[in-house]
Design a protein that fits this description.
about 180 residues; alpha+beta; Topoisomerase I, Chain A, domain 4; Gyrase A, domain 2; 2 domains; four-stranded antiparallel β-sheet; about 15% strand; elongated
């Protein structure tokens, strides 16, 4: 039972770290990359569809991205979705593809993105601590039901603390790398 709780908690925390990694990828840095568009959806035949499923992405230069839709009828919807997103870019449509030129980041914008990265990291840490709390509650319930002893509870809590620290350190490491990327000129 305890091993199941520990395994499930470890799995949940690992997923949280992966989600944090994906969230960091959506924060814009000085370079153009398709992951920035991961959370953007376009209206495609009445369905909100991620634009990464609707088009191919090419990066001919560091700050330019060319988006070519598989279906030309979705071109306007993709362009509108990018324009309405929080990326702060103005896409240009040439009839076949969309060109997105990212403006250089100002110091003020870099600081905003750094704050955003820190808040996303904190969300990840909170989710990891919540997973720990749920596991501790499950272990205490087992103790209350007299299925395990007090020593097992203490030992499990120590293991949970180690697992929690490992995953929070992983999120902090991701944040550190993203901040370095953002502050790099």
């Amino acid at each position: 039972m305890i091993s199941d709780i520990l395994a499930q908690t470890e799995h949940n925390m690992s997923k949280t770290v992966e989600v944090s990694k994906e969230e960091f990828a959506t924060i814009r840095t000085g370079r153009a990359h398709p992951a920035m568009f991961a959370k953007i959806t376009a209206d495609y035949y009445g369905q909100a569809t991620p634009i990464q499923q609707l088009a191919t992405f090419q990066s001919p230069e560091a700050r330019t991205l060319i988006i070519t839709p598989y279906d030309q009828s979705s071109l306007k919807a993709i362009e509108k979705a990018i324009r309405d997103s929080d990326l702060g870019v103005n896409p240009s449509n040439d009839g076949h593809s969309i060109r997105v030129v990212l403006p250089t980041l100002t110091e003020e914008r870099r600081k905003e993105y750094t704050k955003l990265a820190r808040s996303k990291a904190e969300e990840g840490r909170v989710a990891i601590r919540n997973a720990r709390r749920h596991a501790v509650d499950a272990v205490k319930k087992l103790e209350k039901d007299k299925e395990i002893g007090e020593d097992d509870v203490k030992r499990t809590e120590k293991k949970l603390d180690d697992i929690t620290k490992k995953h929070i350190d992983a999120v902090d490491d991701l944040l550190k790398r993203k901040e370095a990327e953002l502050l790099e000129v």
